[in-house]
Amino acid sequence: MKARVYVSFKDSVLDPQGKAVKNALLSIGYEKVKDVRQGKFFQIEMDDMSEAEAKRQITEMAEKILSNPVIEKFEVIL
Asked: Exposure pattern of 38-58 as b/e (b: 16+ CB <10 Å)?
């Protein structure tokens, strides 16, 4: 089973890299860009197990290792 985990800053946390990318896009003519937030993407492949158990384990991984829960949020997609 393959899962995707998207990790990004919480909305209340400043994202200087996202701001820099936004400014670069605006400077080369993409004037409709309203905001950019950067993040991380993980693709995890698990051995055979139930979908519920895979989601539980991958959520645990995201909470413990893949993200910093103080400043980041994550989404697990199976």
From this structure: ebeebebeeeeeeeeebbeeb
Which stretch of DSSP H or E encloses residue 42?
strand 39-45
pLDDT per position in the chain (78 positions), as tens? Answer: 999 999 999 999 999 999 999 999 999 999 999 999 999 999 999 999 999 999 999 999 999 999 999 999 999 999
The domain total for the chain is 1
Pull the structure tokens for residue 61.
């991984």
* CATH number (domain holding residue 39): 3.30.1280.10
